[in-house]
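Q: Predict the bound structure with (2R)-2,3-dihydroxypropanoic acid.
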Amino acid sequence: MTKARILVARAVFPEIIALLEQHFEVEHNQADEPWPKERLAGKLAGKVGAFTTGGERIDADVLAVAPGLKICANMAVGYNNFDLAAMTQRGVLATNTPDVLTESTADFGFALLMATARRLTESEHYLRAGKWQRWSYDMFSGSEVHGSTLGILGMGRIGQGIARRGAHGFGMNVIYHNRSRLAPDLEAQCKARYVGKEELLRAADHLVLVLPYSPASHHAIGAPELALMKPAANLINVARGGVVDDAALAAALRDKRIAAAGLDVFEGEPKVHPDLLTVPNVVLTPHIASATVPTRKAMANLAADNLIGFLVHGKPVTPLNPEVLK
Ligand code: DGY
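A: Predicted complex:
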């Protein structure tokens, strides 16, 4: 019996390729060559399934070249690389990898908050550059973490994980804003209080962004929002580039309108706004919030299980547009 043909668009753990090869004829990209959109579309032609990451844009143009495509399984919880409406219209199932990365991503969000508050990378660069001659009372003084006010914008599973860490581990006063308010038992678990967006911006000592990217959240934090924040506040973005206006943020950091920022995601990444590279009061990491070996393996396995579950057994694990199954 001939096997269904799938594409694995980026390099992934070899055991995942081996698992997929038990069920499918797999074209992979273990060399991790960058494929521009037209090349990706050409590779998808003739395939029924695709294993993608957040970097592959799947939209109407790509789908038009690949009429046989039935499923795109994203190895990411975020899926703003998918035009979900176009996929649904063409009957293409979309899946993502929720839950398996919640705790590691929340760990990282908190690590970035602490690194930013306590000026970890800035002080390390100073030391490595041989500039440390003697101790002084005001050297690299940062902001307090314990007992401060933690503001969270976007209170999904990862936001709740960060809230629990702040409230229970560091005695922080946690406030949040979200499209919808959490159920009372979840608010109690997170020790988090719901506030309006403006109060969140004004009150937070550390503002952590964990909301998904969509046209509605584009530049949710821009110059007007930064102007409402305390001059001593820190901004942490582990959500998506585009949620923050990076040019406005770089200007605010340069002019000390806020104290510092910690950024794991960027508008137009892997490009980084050049002004962010010139200001010292920002910690920059290359989109690694979920990057632990067990978590990345769990994400890859869940994406593979979605392909096998759907194409072999007719039952995906974590569908985003289950209406196409009807
Ligand atoms: C996710 O899972 O959405 C992470 O940002 C990795 O892309």
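A: The chain has a mean pLDDT of 98.
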